[in-house]
């Protein structure tokens, strides 16, 4: 798959952007976004331990209380993080 310079990988209709060991997911026009920090990798280079956080879009250093966890593997991290993100952005809590 080839992307132009200004295009992002889309997952479930929202941009998924990776820079180094940090993955950001969500719409910057929404109140919250998902941040995944890869803390360790398997021998084959796949993400292993991942910190899942929901943060405010305007201030990514401001983590939503109670919305931080550690998961093994990218699938588990995305599954939990997307559930949190959809709930918060839908309800605006």
Q: What attributes characterize this protein structure?
A:
6-stranded antiparallel β-sheet; alpha+beta; 93 residues; globular
Describe the secondary structure blueprint for this structure.
Elements: E1 9-11, E2 14-19, E3 22-25, E4 32-38, E5 49-56, E6 63-72, H1 74-91
Antiparallel strand pairs: 1-2, 2-3, 3-4, 4-5, 5-6
Task: Please give the largest β-sheet.
Answer: 6 strands, antiparallel
What is the overall shape?
A: globular
Q: How much β-strand is present in the residues?
A: 35-45%
Strand order of the largest sheet: 1-2-3-4-5-6
Order of helices and strands: EEEEEEH
* Count of helical regions: 1
Fraction in helix? 10-25%
Mean pLDDT across residues: 89
Gyration radius, to the nearest Å?
A: 13 Å
Low-confidence stretches: none
The first-to-last residue Cα distance is 37 Å
Helix and strand content put the structural class at: alpha+beta
Q: What oligomeric state do these chains adopt? A: single chain
- Strands, count: 6
Question: What would you note in describing this structure?
Answer:
The chain is an alpha+beta fold and 93 residues long. The protein contains 1 helix and 6 strands; from the N terminus they run E-E-E-E-E-E-H. A hairpin with a 6-residue loop joins strand 3 (22-25) and strand 4. The longest helix is centred in the last third of the chain and has 18 residues, at 74-91. The protein has one helix spanning 74-91, and strands at 9-11, 14-19, 22-25, 32-38, 49-56, 63-72. The protein is globular and about 40 Å long. It has a 6-stranded antiparallel beta sheet with strand order 1-2-3-4-5-6, with helices on one face.
